[in-house]
Amino acid sequence: MYPTRQEAEALLADAASCNPGPWEAHSRVTAWCAEKIAQACPGMDAEKAWVLGLLHDIGRKFGVKHLGHVYDGWRYMMQAGYDEAARICLTHSFNEGKLESYIGKFDITEEETKELRQALAQTSFDDYDRLIQLCDSIAGAEGVVNIEDRMNDVKRRYGRFPQSKWDKNLELKAFFEQMAGEDIYNVVGGIGAGI
Predict the structure, then answer these.
(1) For residue 126, what are the β-bridge partners?
(2) In terms of DSSP H, where are the helices of 56-146?
(3) CB-hemisphere CA count at 13 Å for 122?
(4) Nearest to 102 by CA among 146, 133, 126, 141
C-alpha cells in the first residue's frame, strides 16, 4: 500500500518543514523522473512511481542523517501502513542489495543495523525498487543530471564510490532504456528537466 498523490505531497511538506533542505527538491525531481519513465515502460503504473519517488527520502524528516534516513523512512512508512513506500525507503540506497555498499556514515545503532540488514535480505527487488534507484541517481535538487556526473559528485563528497555500485547504476539505466525503447534523458525531458 502507498499513499495517494495528495497524501504524499502532504507527507513531504510536513517532512520538509521539520528538516528543510535540498533533499525536498531532489525528491520532487526523483518523482518527476519516476513518473516519466514509468509512463514509457509497459506495465508500470506512473502514479505509483511518482508517489514512491516523492517519498524515497522521507526519513530525512527526522534530521540530517546518513544511513539513519533509510531506517527512519522505512520505519515511518511502515508505522503509517504504507508498506510499498516503506520498501522503497529501504531499497533506494542499495542497488546491489547489500547494506555494506552504503556510501555514507552508519549512524544507526547495532540493533537498527541488524534490523535493516535482515529486512534487506528478505526483499527481492522489483521494477519499482530498480526505478527509484535509477531516478535517485539522475535527480539533483535543480533538475535531472547526468548519472555519471551525479556519481562523481557523490564520490567527491564521500571520498569513494564502489565500482560495482557505479556499474549497477549504469546497468539500471540500460535496463530502463531497453524497457522504454529510448534514451532515459529523452524520456525525462533532458538534463535540467524536472522542476
Answers:
(1) none
(2) 67-79, 83-91, 110-121, 127-138
(3) 7
(4) 133
How far from chain centre, in Å, is Cα 120?
15
Q: Name the grid cell of 174.
A: 540500460
Residue 194: band (very low, low, confident or very high) from pLDDT cuts 50, 70, 90: confident
- Strands (E) in 12-52, as ranges, are none
**Among candidates 1, 4, 8, which has minimal Cα distance to 28?**
8
- In angstroms, the Cα distances linking 173 to 10, 131, 169, 194 are 30, 9, 6, 17
pTM of the model: 0.96
How far apart are alpha carbons 157 and 149 in whole angstroms?
A: 12
- Around Cβ 13, how many Cβ atoms within 10 Å? 10
The x, y and z cell numbers of residue 48, run together, are 505509483
Specify the 3-state DSSP secondary structure of 140: coil
CB-based burial label for 67 (10 Å; 0-12, 13-18, 19+): buried
Place of cell 503504473: 45
- Least Cα distance to 50 among 17, 105, 8 occurs for 8
Residue 101: pLDDT band (50, 70, 90) is confident
